[in-house]
UniProtKB/TrEMBL annotation:
Ranges: PPR repeats: 188-222, 368-398, 399-433
GO BP annotation list: RNA modification
Coiled-coil annotated residue ranges, if any: none
Alphabetized UniProt keyword annotations: Repeat, Transit peptide
Molecular function via GO: RNA binding
InterPro entries with a match to the protein in the record: E_motif (IPR046848), PPR_At4g14850-like_plant (IPR046960), PPR_rpt (IPR002885), TPR-like_helical_dom_sf (IPR011990)
Name of the molecule in the record: Pentatricopeptide repeat-containing protein At3g14730-like
Domain of life: Eukaryota
Upper taxonomic lineage: Eukaryota, Viridiplantae, Streptophyta, Embryophyta, Tracheophyta
Length: 634
């Protein structure tokens, strides 16, 4: 109260307009003094003498995210509110997700001012409120408002028409939006952007692209919002060539200096696996202009390119830049922890999610399902299944991925019984329909745990009960399950039924496992007919002939590999976490006892190479002393 009064005296306000301006400025810069500002308006008499004072007070409460007080100010006004004050209050309610209250106030406006009908500033917030209502009420209210606009002849006002088009699109009525758009006698860039961006957000990429072409044909100069909208289309359709053309246009029109456009370009290049271009665009954004979306787009670009170390380093850079991560950030970072088995950093991120309030004090909280799934997946892939299960149990809601991650986690670690119990809970208790991924996880659990009869029953239930057609992966898993159990004839029947390389590869591996060289050689010959067997399949063929002592067959496979240009796949890569990871969520840098060591087969670039190989040779020597003889054909 004292600060507000001091500001008024400093400005020497004598008229109502100056008083309202000073009070509004004070309330905006000192939100806690909003009540004092309101009191000064009452005691000064401004609310009794100036309708603009009431409008300014309502707008101030709206700017302070206090829509209830904005409505109370309107209702308790000593002067009868005018149309401008009603519009300000309706906007306050609609912009703060109070659609029913906004519509009720709009009805009150029509009753209170019968001689002053709603104008072009009354309808846009009400149309926005309609789009926030649950269906089917939203559709009914929106069509009623559209009819009222036709009656009042405001439907051709560009400001109102843009709001109406957006509302139809938000309610997933693109045909109505397009019909309204085509009937308008003139269209500005805002209206074109409303249709283009709305179609893009609905996934109607073909119509969105056609809208963009029509816009250019009409001679309308694209704005930065046009650029971001059409870039989202090319990003979703992975149309890198067209995206580059839009990038060139953005540079020519100087739109690339806008952070929103740069963010969209980073997203485009990242999702098209052009990491160099994404990094270049990200680096071109001024430090002060980088917002949370900028960082998230670059993190996702690194994630799409499997640069897991880069993801963790950028996270540390982001934290040092005082940018607060959100659930999207965590959903991009946690898979990097999972792929690198950086469990300690994953735990740090989990702790950060809890302390920041994003994941609640009990580990569930308000974190969105996508990010919670990423946390669950990180724990599962790192072998911390109990932690993964705690995250799963504390999630307020689950989608199919939540179940799939947990079932696959149990299956991958040989805990088939727990995987199947969770599968039964999903299907029998929760009454959720499993998808192909769920069923593959359950079959994998049966395979790894030797639960053959359960797996065979599950394969039958796929078609009969769940209406899911078995795919190549399911047949390969079934062949692997039967082969591990020594039921080679049944595994062969599954491979013949599947008619693809994966199932035969599983059958071949089972034959070699059980020392059936003749059956393995037969499987090897069958695999020669599959072009898509891949280098792994050819290596298995060569090993099968080698195990059977058929060196002619081995030479034949090697010659065929040379003729077809088949090369052995890239060597495997392993990570070893020592202490913690090189870059923590708190920004800790390498050299502080936080290290993840990356190894590639045959790699001699590691700075500790001499000591590592010395230790390795010692271990191999001890293994030989214990009688271990490696199987060089694996």
């Amino acid at each position: 109260m004292i600060a507000a009064a001091a500001l008024l005296l400093h400005r020497r306000c004598t008229d109502a307009a100056g008083l309202v301006s000073a009070l509004y400025d004070c309330a905006r810069r000192r939100p806690r003094e909003a009540g004092a500002v309101h009191a000064l308006l009452v005691t000064s008499g401004a609310l009794r003498s100036s309708p603009s004072a009431l409008t300014a007070l309502i707008s101030a409460y709206s700017a302070l995210s206090l829509p209830a007080l904005a409505l109370r100010a309107l209702v308790a006004s000593p002067l009868p509110p005018n149309l401008v004050s009603f519009n300000a209050a309706i906007t306050a309610l609609a912009s703060h997700s109070l659609p029913s209250a906004a519509l009720d106030l709009f009805r009150r406006l029509r009753r209170a001012l019968p001689d002053e009908p709603p104008d072009a500033f009354s309808f846009p917030p009400v149309l926005r409120a309609c789009a926030d209502l649950p269906a089917p009420h939203a559709h009914l209210h929106l069509r009623a408002l559209h009819a009222l606009l036709l009656k009042s002849r405001l439907h051709r006002d560009l400001f109102v028409a843009s709001a109406l088009v957006r509302s139809y699109l938000r309610l997933r009525l693109p045909d109505d939006a397009a019909h309204l758009f085509d009937e308008l006698p003139r269209r500005d860039v805002v209206l074109w952007n409303a249709l283009l961006n709305g179609l893009a957000q609905l996934g109607r990429f073909g119509p969105a692209l056609e809208c963009f072409r029509r816009m250019l044909g009409a001679g309308v100069a694209p704005s930065k919002f046009t650029v971001t909208g059409i870039l989202s289309v090319f990003t979703a359709t992975a149309d890198l060539g067209s995206g580059r053309k839009v990038h060139a246009f953005a540079v020519k029109a100087a739109h690339d200096r806008e952070a929103s456009v740069a963010n969209a370009l980073v997203d485009l290049y990242g999702k098209c696996h052009e990491l160099g271009d994404a990094t270049e665009v990200f680096a071109s954004i001024a430090d002060d202009d980088r917002d949370l979306f900028s960082w998230n787009s670059m993190l996702c670009a690194l994630h799409y390119s499997a640069d897991n170390v880069g993801v963790l380093r950028l996270l540390a850079h982001m934290r040092r830049s005082a940018i607060w991560p959100d659930a999207v950030t965590m959903a991009a970072v946690l898979p990097a922890c999972a792929h690198m088995a950086a469990l300690r950093l994953g735990r740090e991120i989990h702790g950060f999610l809890v302390t920041s309030g994003m994941f609640g004090n009990n580990g569930g909280g308000s974190l969105d399902v996508f990010a919670a799934n990423a946390l669950e997946d990180m724990y599962a892939k790192s072998g911390a299944l109990e932690d993964a299960r705690r995250v799963f149990d504390r999630m307020p809601e689950h989608d199919s991925a939540s179940w799939n991650i947990m079932i696959d986690g149990y299956a991958s670690h040989g805990r088939g019984g727990e995987a199947l119990r969770l599968f039964d809970r999903m299907t029998a208790v929760e009454k959720l329909a499993p998808d192909a991924v769920t069923l593959l996880g359950a079959l994998t659990a049966c395979s790894h745990a030797g639960m053959v009869e359960e797996g065979r029953a599950l394969l039958r239930r796929m078609r009969e009960e769940f209406a899911v057609e078995p795919e190549a992966e399911h047949y390969a898993c079934a062949a692997d399950m039967l082969g591990r159990a020594g039921r080679l004839e049944e595994a062969k029947q599954v491979a013949e039924k599947a008619g693809e390389a994966g199932a035969w590869r599983a059958y071949l591996a089972a034959c070699r496992m059980h020392g059936e060289a003749g059956m393995a050689e037969e499987a090897a010959r069958r695999m020669l007919g599959f072009e898509g067997a891949g280098s792994g399949g050819w290596v298995l063929l060569a090993n099968a002939y080698g195990s059977a002592g058929s060196f002619e067959g081995l030479e034949e496979v090697r010659g065929e590999m040379r003729r077809r240009g088949v090369r052995k796949a890239a060597p495997g890569c392993s990570w070893v976490e020592v202490g913690a990871v090189a870059v923590g969520v708190d920004g800790a840098a390498a050299g502080e006892g936080r290290t993840v060591h990356v190894f590639v087969s045959g790699d001699r670039e590691h700075p500790e190479m001499e000591r590592i190989y010395q230790m390795l040779h010692g271990l191999v020597g001890r293994m030989r002393e214990c009688g271990y003889v490696p199987d060089l054909n694996i």
